[in-house]
Specification:
Layout lengths: L7 H7 L5 H4 L17 H4 L8 E5 L5 H9 L4 E6 L2 H7 L5 E4 L15 E7 L8 H8 L3 E12 L4 H8 L25 H5 L6 E10 L13 H14 L1 H4 E10 L1
Parallel strand pairs: 1-2, 1-4, 2-3, 4-5
Antiparallel strand pairs: 5-7, 6-7
Length: 253
């Protein structure tokens, strides 16, 4: 349950509509899934270079840890996931990776640990009470430490088009409508809901990551440099329309 790939918005843009492509697929439980991608640079960018101890909750196969290690080689990264297969891959980049359920309590082995940053990259939407999980784990932060959160935006333009077509189908292959998602957020509501039970956390930054869909034009008709400028303009003026993931940074008081 780690970072949404950088290609996710493009995948949504190119994905065929309709029900037939998903009907034959079966869903795997979280304990058997392996979420792996290229990491999530926008959420990793929220982590200060001075951080030395980082906890990645829902670390997937360690893709964000690999990005962090390339940028901050001296940092120690610890992870928690639900999947043995993910943990085995993630340990290549981590000091330690545990397999555990974080829904109810902070695991005993973490209670005495302290961290400079805690990452929740595309994991909170899978949980029954995500705000409570953020509040519990934020107690492991050093003063001035931060929480970096990434979640999908259910009102991304690609999803709005699907809704207009009458499609709202969970997808066993992941994405915004991953069939293990229990909660949905927008750019306007994400921080209000996810930080609601964390009085000791103050929102320091909120950004979106995404692009304006231009099927058949991006890099072919319109130069990529122009496309990037158009994307920046669109995200600045309509973040809740063109942002496919929301990035939050909150600092412990």
């Amino acid at each position: 349950m780690a970072g949404m790939p950088a290609k996710a918005a493009a995948d949504i843009e190119a994905r065929p509509s309709g029900k037939q492509e998903r009907r034959a697929r079966t869903s795997l439980p979280l304990t058997e899934r392996v979420y792996t991608n290229e990491g999530n640079p926008p959420v990793v960018s929220q982590i200060d270079n001075r951080c030395r101890r980082i906890l990645d909750i829902g670390c997937g196969a360690g893709d964000n840890a690999a990005l962090l290690k390339s940028r901050i080689p001296e940092c120690e990264i610890f992870g928690v996931t639900r999947s043995d297969a993910e943990a085995e891959r993630a340990r290549a980049y981590m000091t330690e990776c545990w397999v555990d359920d974080i829904e109810e309590n902070v695991p005993d082995y973490l209670l005495r640990e302290r961290f400079d940053c805690i990452i929740f990259s595309h994991v909170l939407e899978h949980l029954r009470d995500p705000a409570a999980v953020v509040a519990r784990f934020s107690q492991l932060l050093n003063k001035g430490g931060s929480v970096a959160i990434a979640i999908p935006n259910v009102l991304y333009v690609g999803m709005r088009l699907e809704f207009l077509r009458g499609n709202f189908e969970y997808n066993p292959d992941g994405g915004i409508l991953d069939d293990t998602h229990l909660h949905f957020y927008t750019c306007l509501t994400a921080d209000r809901y996810l930080l609601a039970k964390s009085a000791d956390l103050k929102l320091a930054n909120k950004i979106v990551d995404g692009h304006i869909p231009m099927p058949g034009l991006r890099g072919r008709v319109i130069p990529r440099t122009w496309c990037k400028a158009i994307d920046r303009w669109g995200l600045r003026h309509w973040p809740n329309l063109f942002g496919y993931q929301i990035i939050l940074k909150a600092v412990k008081l």
